[in-house]
Amino acid sequence: MAAALLVVLAVAALVTEGASEAEGMVSTSVEESGPKSRLICALNSSSTTIEGHRWMRGDKVLQEDKLPDLRTEYLVSANESGGHYTCIFLPEPAGRASIPVKGPPRVYAVKKSEHASEGESITLKCKSDSHPPVTQWVWYKKVDATEQVLANGSQSKVMVRSWEGHTELHIENLDMESDPGTYVCNGTSSMGTHSATLTLRVRSRLAALWPFLGIVAEVLVLVTIIFIYEKRRKPEEVLDGEAGPGDEDMGSAPLKSSGHSVNDKDKQIRQRNSS
Q1: Edge to edge, what strands does the sheet with 52-57 contain?
Q2: What is the rounded distance in angstroms from the CA atom of residue 98 to the CA atom of residue 86?
Q3: Residue-by-residue DSSP string for 9-24
Q4: What is the pLDDT of residues 206-233, one digit of tens each?
Q5: Is the pLDDT of residue 243 over 60?
Q6: Cα–Cα distance between 123 and 170 in angstroms, integer?
Q7: Confidence band of 263 (pLDDT split at 50, 70, 90)
Q8: What is the rounded CA–CA span in Å between residue 130 and residue 31?
Q9: Going edge to edge, which strands form the sheet with 107-109?
Q10: Pair 148, 141: CB distance under 8 Å
Q11: 124: buried, middle or exposed (CB in 10 Å: 19+, 13-18, 0-12)?
Q12: Phi then psi for 237, rounded to 5 degrees?
């Protein structure tokens, strides 16, 4: 049992040593520089050659370079929203650190435009990666010049689900008349409030059939044209067949027979006169 415990401890030590060699310690600081804040990350040491730096906020890349320094900086302007900024030393995992920066909330729609068919269900989503986080969410729909608040219980087919930094509006049994339009999600934190706009479009159930119906209509028109053309062409062919070579032979046959009978009569008259 003791031997097994020693083996486990040895493996844990090796893993810790490898992790510390792969990723160094990063110290962070924030300096106020007039209307901007300077975010600073400094790597104490690195067993690999630094090939660059990357700054991110959430999953969005803000800045990237290819400098070999063990120090990197990023300026945050006063109009930028707060959030968690991350500095990354390349190649990963040479080192990384996160710096929380306070600021007004920044709310954005996961998808600014959504499409669905009538009778279906749809989920509209908004997020915020600000710091401090959004703690209160409100959904509403713009109807003419008014704002119709949407909440659980306001409509039987509407459901709102919200978490810290995330909110969803679920609409069931979409209607082409009442549901399309502009929706707004509003987020509020201790530093202020912000909102994002989404557009919902609802199409008819038959929308997917229109291309097929168009092809069927084109085929029917083509078949009708061919049928009318063939019907008009057949009587002309019949008339042409009646005036063919066979009819000429039939018409000339009586003439030949009548010619022989006249010659025979002339011969008989001449024989009688001669006698």
Answers
A1: 60-65, 52-57, 83-90, 95-101
A2: 4
A3: HHHHHHHHHHHHHHS-
A4: 766 667 677 888 888 888 888 888 877 7
A5: no
A6: 4
A7: low
A8: 19
A9: 107-109, 122-128, 166-171, 158-163
A10: yes
A11: buried
A12: -65, -35
132 upstream amide cis, omega within 30 of 0: yes
Rounded CA-CA distance 83/131 in Å is 4
The span from the CA of 79 to the CA of 106, in Å, is 11
* pTM of the predicted structure, to 2 decimals: 0.63
Q: How far apart are CA 96 and CA 164, in angstroms?
A: 25
Residues 6+ apart with CB under 8 A from 73: 38, 39, 40, 41
> With 0-12 CB in 10 A as exposed, 13-18 as middle and 19+ as buried, what is 108?
middle
d(CA 274, CA 256): 28
DSSP assignment of the chain: -HHHHHHHHHHHHHHHHHHHHHS--EEEEEEEETTEEEEEEEES--SS---EEEEEETTEEEEEE----SEEEEEEETTSPPEEEEEEEETTTSEEEEEEE-----EEES-SEEEEETT--EEEEEEE--SSPP-EEEEEEEETTEEEEE-BTTBTTEEEEEETTEEEEEE-S--TTTS-EEEEEEEEETTEEEEEEEEEEEE-GGGGGHHHHHHHHHHHHHHHHHHHHHHHHHHHHHHHHHTSHHHHHHHHHHHHHHHHHHHHHHHHHHHHHH-
Spell 162-176 as b/e; 16+ CB within 10 A means b.
Answer: beebbbbbebeebee
